[in-house]
Amino acid sequence: MSSGGKHKPFPHIVRIVVVPRAPGSKSARHKDGHDKSHSLPDSELVAAENQLKRMEAPSPKKTSARRGSSAARFPKPKNEPKNMFEALKPTDIVAIGQEAASVRVVDKHGKPVSLNTAKKPGRKAKRRLFGHDDGNKDTVLRVWTKSDTIEYRCEVPFTIVAVEKAGWKIHGSADNPFANKKPYKAQQVEGTKGGKPLWVWKSSPLRATANNQQYKMTFKIGKELVDPDVVCGDPPPSS
User: Fold this and answer.
1) The overall pTM is greater than 0.70
2) Cβ atoms within 10 A of the Cβ of 50, count?
């Protein structure tokens, strides 16, 4: 699924929602210090879902996805979302301690499905929270280079402290997809009317030399480090 394009630049908006981990929980870690894939047990994911369901949904004017974006592949509620869990897109980030998770759509067997598959007879789609891993391709943000921008929003101060190639490494690809000068520190802006303030960081159009390369960004949110992925492409890699 392509997102944006040279003639129709798309401003990707990624919401980061912080959910505290359960007391006494511990992350499994790689030798390099990064969190290990699927280190969040189902019990913590369910607990995080319940917390998200108690959170107020963001203003639709601030977070609505444009047709053709990565989120267009997933069911959109007929009415306005009742809570944060219903409002989140699969490319949004749920920060649970040092772990990254995203809401995905699954069928009655718990298997992730596309919107078209979910609509087939006998298929019942529902939302579930999944911890990030290299196989969760539908939760990785895909963008066009030389046109699209990415804007990260969070109700907690954050800084992008590192950007590095992840997964495959294409020869000659940019070490950093962003042309912005570091540090990538979010700035506080006024939130929606009557809402909490937001911290926002917006990129410039991504470098063409980042095409088809996956990157892992490390966010410092409070005292925690979280590292979701992004893929650049012209056109973006197919899902």
Assistant:
1) yes
2) 12
